[in-house]
Amino acid sequence: MRKIDREAFLYEVLGNEQLPAHLARTVIEEKLRSAILDGRLPSGTALRQQELATLFGVSRMPVREALRQLEAQSLVRVQLHKGAVVAPLITEDAVDAYALRILFESEALRLSIPLLDAEDYALARQCIEKLEIETDYSRIGTLNRMFHMALYAKTPNKRLMRLVEAGLNEEERFLRFNLSAMGLGKLVQDDHWQLLRLAEAREIDATVEALHNHLNRAVNAITRYLASKAAETRPRRQRKQGTVDA
Ligand code: NI
């Protein structure tokens, strides 16, 4: 995208509210986060520090800080020569991404469950109840993330929590764009109720096992979905060969 087009695009998506210095980092981070999550800023969009600083009438420092926060949440990736760009959605590395999530989230559950209180369980329950009736795919992604976060809420290891949050953010973005085509749904809700029931009973090993099943179900669905999409877009001649190979 040419510089002038990119500036016009950023203005359209983010506005150009002139920000007081003390709020700049937080507001810029929030604006970018919501635009990335709802797809207004698609994967691969370049986020140049100077352009954003000019847009909001601030120095580069708060912009750099905001981008760093978003990078820690896996929403932004820093590429050599290109600088910060909006991170890609989970794609062919979905299996690896979920394998790591299983590690991090199992540990987070183990640390959190003994410390969870009635308020945490109530929040988790509310999220599942809302998921039962929600039809908006972007809200479903958010509620799913909030449900899982409620069960990890008491994890005392802050670094671990940042990794957990990054994984959940990544999944939320993916679900937002693809959930309608993936045919998860009822099965996933059964998992959620089971996770809550086991966590409330403080059955740590059983909760962790239920989480493994839940995340494996998701990774299987994503893998199947991506494979079917790849088959759709492959040229016909290749597809024929592909079928023979398979
Ligand atoms: Ni879930």
What report would you give on this structure?
The chain has 246 residues and is mainly alpha-helical. It folds into two domains: 84 residues, Orthogonal Bundle (Arc Repressor Mutant, subunit A), CATH 1.10.10.10; 141 residues, Four Helix Bundle (Hemerythrin (Met), subunit A) (Up-down Bundle). It is 74% helix and 3% strand. The chain has eleven helices and two strands; from the N terminus they run ααααββααααααα. A two-stranded antiparallel sheet has the order 1-2. A hairpin with a 3-residue loop joins strand 1 and strand 2. Helix 2 crosses helix 4 and helix 3 packs across helix 4. It is globular, with a radius of gyration of 20 Å. The structure holds nickel (II) ion (NI). Nickel (II) ion binds next to helix 7 and helix 9.
The run of helices and strands is: HHHHEEHHHHHHH
CA-CA gap between termini: 39 Å
Task: Name the CATH superfamily classification of the largest domain.
Answer: GntR ligand-binding domain-like
The strands making up the biggest β-sheet line up spatially as 1-2
Q: Estimate the strand proportion.
A: under 5%
How many whole angstroms does the radius of gyration measure? 20 Å
Number of strands: 2
CATH class of the largest domain: Mainly Alpha
Query: What hetero molecules are bound to the protein chains?
Result: nickel (II) ion
Low-pLDDT runs: 239-246
Q: Summarize the biggest pleated sheet.
A: 2 strands, antiparallel
Question: How is the CATH topology of the largest domain named?
Answer: Four Helix Bundle (Hemerythrin (Met), subunit A)
